[in-house]
From TrEMBL, chains A, B:
Residues 10-78 form the HTH gntR-type domain. Keywords: DNA-binding, Transcription, Transcription regulation. It comes from the Bacteria. This is UTRA domain-containing protein. One of its GO terms (molecular function) is DNA-binding transcription factor activity. Pfam families: GntR, UTRA. The keyword Transcription regulation applies. It comes from Antarcticimicrobium luteum.
DNA sequence: TAGTGGTCTAGACCACGGA
DNA sequence: CCGTGGTCTAGACCACTAG
């Protein structure tokens, strides 16, 4: 490299990342083609190999490169790019939209786990969990409908929480960090009860997000979130 | 640290990541609390500071830690976790499910860009783009309905492609790497035409994914994907 | 201004797996 | 086997910002 053309805008690794990405996008390095190895790039850019390694690992995680020992680094043939989105606390989500947040606990009980949730959670059907239904509001209009099952054995202390004032989402985020989570997006037509709670009409199409979390002592909670019609969830990259 | 208890299962950085995560989850280090600085942890674990740095940066990206110069590293108060999912090529997605893939190009034309897409793309309404509608099938049953606008100025060479044999998704992935993408999930009721093409009934709730991609010469493509009823999109962590 | 994380380096050794 | 990426180290300097 003769000289850094653009403003670095970051460190050397960031510069190398951008430059390599540019070469891929501009087709200087073509799909499936092997690119110079770390030592060569280190020499070209005048940096240590560790710096090149960091840059290339970022691009590999991003899906633009395939790296294998001995085989070298190649431009990915079918770049399987990853998108990510953050999972915000409902209250913050509502307040970020400039609305005032409130929520209402519709029901809470200890109930045997229905079959349809048992497999997902990895618990036997019939095991007694805490079952909650709640609605989250923005400016008094329904924003999200929540149907949640909580495994009390994974969350000691939950029995004593009053969820009329603290919503379960927030309490769990702060008190039950998870190791693994799974999210499922789907769509379904609002049932009669869903429609009433969301103050919309039955058969309305709803975006559904199912989220289940685990830690090393087993499943923590599974929740079905039904969003108000028109809600759009955004992810980037 | 006296000794590594568990099987390392990775390098030292991976071990430190797991151990710190464990201390957070087990509440040895509480929310908002400051944890020892990198030098101290390096001494505790008997590793170089760079190794601790790498481990803590992973946890910070994951959202479990807040790190600031001079202020040190703290356990995040509201862990905003990120979930990610990969954006597969439709054909691979279908074949991964054990079905045989086929697709059908419904229409292709050069059309002025409607107002509703103009803002999203950052192009003036009325600019002439390529407009395509296609259906992707798994075992001859409709899997996904695609409504796509392509900016030919961002993708030289696209005019000569015959999309009856190559689907646009695949061609673009291989020939038009993007710098930035935006994804929007929503739900809507199937219109008459959607229902016919997806071989389902009108008013059926559909999961909709809008994806728009850009590179440094502007927007590349925006596409609305309507999935067959019952389809579930999964993301993890 | 001093303490903390951010980054880089030159070198080393190791693990994987293609040739 | 042996070239490649994966990881670690000891040290250095820098950038930010809290006190």
């Amino acid at each position: 490299m003769t000289e850094r053309e653009a403003l670095p805008s970051g460190g050397k690794a960031a510069y190398i990342t951008e430059e390599v990405r540019r070469r891929i996008i501009e087709k200087e390095w073509r799909q499936g083609e092997r690119i110079p190895d770390e030592a060569e790039l280190a020499a070209e850019f005048g940096v240590a190999r560790a710096t090149v390694n960091k840059a290339l690992q970022m691009l590999a995680e991003e899906g633009l490169l395939d790296r294998r020992r001995r085989a070298g680094t190649r431009v990915a043939v079918n770049p399987v790019r990853k998108a990510s989105f953050s999972i915000p606390i409902v209250r913050e989500q509502v307040e970020a939209a400039g609305m005032s947040y409130s929520h209402r606990l519709i029901s809470q009980s200890r109930s045997p786990l229905p079959e349809r949730h048992a497999a997902r959670l990895g618990l036997p059907a019939g095991e007694v969990l805490i079952h909650q239904r709640a609605v989250h509001y923005g400016d008094r209009r329904p924003f999200q409908l929540e149907d949640r099952w909580i495994n009390p054995r994974a969350v000691p202390g939950i029995e004593t929480v009053d969820f009329h004032h603290m919503n379960a989402n927030e309490w769990l985020v702060r008190n039950a960090p998870y190791l693994r989570a799974e999210l499922n997006f789907s769509a379904c037509s609002a049932g009669v009860r869903d429609a009433r709670l969301l103050e919309t009409k039955p058969e309305q199409a709803l975006l559904i997000l199912n989220r289940t979390t685990w830690n090393d002592s087993g499943p923590i909670t599974t929740v079905r979130l039904a969003f108000h019609p028109g809600y759009v969830m955004t992810a980037t990259t």
